[in-house]
Write a structure and sequence with these properties.
Shape: elongated
CATH class of the largest domain: Alpha Beta
Largest sheet: 8 strands, mixed
Helix content: 25-40%
Number of domains: 3
Number of strands: 16
Number of helices: 16
Structural class: alpha/beta
CATH topology of the largest domain: Rossmann fold
Length: 511
């Protein structure tokens, strides 16, 4: 190589090195590292993270995460989100700079996941594309619309007397083993074909109970539009605490795209107990029944996220059915009264009715919907008439009749009519009733067409009336869902079909 070419090559090389040196900017990977001082019962105390924020996600050894709960002057109280058996004092803890979030999107539909978004159904890994924080602000008042679209539960007594609307928060409460979860599952099953996405959030439930629910949903074809978020009873208290918030963020993602979402929290009693356990372990001051002072706030900020958005925001809705367990029928206990004051009504299940075999065991007198008939199909007003009043009168008179009180003819008629109301409002589990069948049965009740039917034949008589609904004219069927309600001609035709269906039962009663 000629000397001139060699000198030129050296010049070019040195020039390239000079430019690289001038443009070089060192990328210092600064990290804030703390150490564990103590770890016990799902709680860790960490020192050396002065800039950590409240509810920030912290990374522990072994891929374990925790949420910064208590920010004290010298240390941080952290709620651990997983098995912490491998942790020990002196282990390093790293900040992540983000809050707890959960995967959201269409990929979750039909899956069973834990509050961290990990699959529990043995299927493939979930390839999500977006995450949302589990703690989000509730929609502003001006972004909300009135609750005026019905959510049909398929349970006759609820749709007729305690209606629920899309965007409403309706509490389900009652003693242990009275059928609270069954009502929620029936409501989910009844959303088939209604373009409603459902989320079932199990909080601190037995794995066998959750598996039973998932099996029922799969059997009825409901998993195709349902997401199941599970925190089992043996999971750390941190999992039980974040589960409902994670499930709500998943629901909000779909609500903000204009879809209608139903979410069931089963149950918030376990959620409150998990938060109490966390708070006591973190030495937060205990209050009534050892619950911390902000126990009301953790549920109010959760349930306020359920709403019906305005058309400008997409018009989607998030309907919440929180479940809470009472003890010895005490609905005036601390957690139940908190939730009653937050929600828009409650469905109370009575153990006395449950023991009598009146299922679902809904106490109509103690149940209420504060949205009322504003979120009910207008046809129900025509069909129910004075049903609730008649049923209340029957329950009062029935208690007197037990003492052998002599009753006049009118009182006996009220009792006989009330017994038929009770018989018709009974409904097997996992068999939600469609609107036309409900209207036929309710109209037959309000017209006292069931009164001549013997009580032991009421089930067969009701099935005959529901079968008659299949012969309804298509124009009248459309009237059942119209804002104007049922016309006089339509009402007369339904009554006539009911009378025809019950003729054989009346004849049998006169023999």
């Amino acid at each position: 190589m000629r000397p001139e070419s060699l000198n030129s090559l050296f010049d070019e090389t040195f020039e390239a090195m000079r430019r690289a040196r001038e443009t070089f900017r060192p990328q210092l990977g600064l990290k804030e590292i703390g150490v564990i001082t103590t770890v016990f019962n799902g709680i860790a105390r960490v020192a050396g993270l002065p800039n950590a924020g409240c509810e920030e996600l912290l990374r522990f050894p072994g891929g374990l995460y925790g949420i910064a709960f208590n920010i004290d002057e010298s240390e941080i109280g952290v709620v651990l989100l997983g098995d912490h058996a491998h942790l020990q004092a002196g282990d390093e803890v790293e900040r992540t700079g983000r809050v707890m979030d959960v995967p959201v999107g269409e990929e979750l539909i039909g899956r069973v996941i834990d509050p961290l978004g990990r699959p529990l159904d043995g299927k493939s890994h979930i390839a999500f594309r977006q995450r949302l924080p589990i703690e989000r602000s509730a929609p502003a008042i001006m972004d909300r619309a009135p609750v005026n679209v019905p959510l049909q539960s398929g349970v006759k007594v609820i749709d007729a007397l305690i209606p629920v609307g899309r965007g409403q928060r309706e509490l389900i409460l009652g003693d242990r083993q009275t059928g609270k979860t069954a009502i929620a599952i029936d409501t989910i099953i009844n959303q088939r074909g209604e373009n409603m996405l459902c989320i079932y959030c199990a909080i601190g439930q037995r794995a066998a109970a959750v598996a039973k629910v998932v099996a029922e949903l799969e059997e009825k074809g409901a998993m195709g539009y349902t997401i199941v978020v599970v925190s089992e009873g043996n999971d750390p208290p941190g999992h039980n605490y974040i589960a409902p918030y994670a499930a709500t963020s998943i629901g909000e993602y779909f609500m903000e795209t204009g879809r209608d979402v139903l979410i069931v929290y089963d149950d918030l009693t376990q959620h409150a107990r998990a938060y109490r356990e966390i708070s006591l372990l973190l030495r937060r001051p205990p209050g009534r029944e050892a619950f911390p002072g902000d126990i009301f706030y953790i549920h109010s900020r959760l349930l306020e996220r359920a709403t019906h958005l305005s058309e400008e925001k997409g018009g989607g809705s998030l309907t919440a059915l929180p479940i809470v367990e009472t003890e010895a029928q005490n609905i005036a206990a601390y957690i139940p009264t908190n939730l009653i004051s937050i929600t828009d009504g409650q469905i109370y299940l009575s153990p006395s009715l449950f023991e009598l075999g009146v299922l679902p065991a809904i106490d109509v007198g103690k149940s209420v919907s504060r949205v009322g008939d504003k979120a009910q199909l207008p046809v129900y007003r025509t069909a129910t008439g004075n049903l609730k009043l008649d049923y209340a009168q029957f329950e009062e008179l029935e208690s007197f009749a037990r003492f052998g009180t002599r009753l006049d003819e009118r009182s006996r008629q009220i009792i006989e009519h009330g017994r038929r109301i009770r018989a018709v409002l009974k409904q097997p589990e996992l068999e939600p009733a469609p609107v036309p069948e409900q209207i036929f049965v309710l109209l037959a009740l309000s017209q006292e067409l069931f009164d001549p039917v013997p009580l032991d034949r009421m089930k067969a008589a009701e099935l005959a009336v529901r079968k008659a609904a299949q012969n309804l004219d298509e124009n009248i069927r459309r009237e059942l869902y119209s804002p104007e309600g049922l016309s006089e001609n339509g009402r007369a035709e339904i009554v006539q079909l009911c009378q025809k269906a019950l003729e054989t039962f009346k004849e049998a009663s006169h023999e």
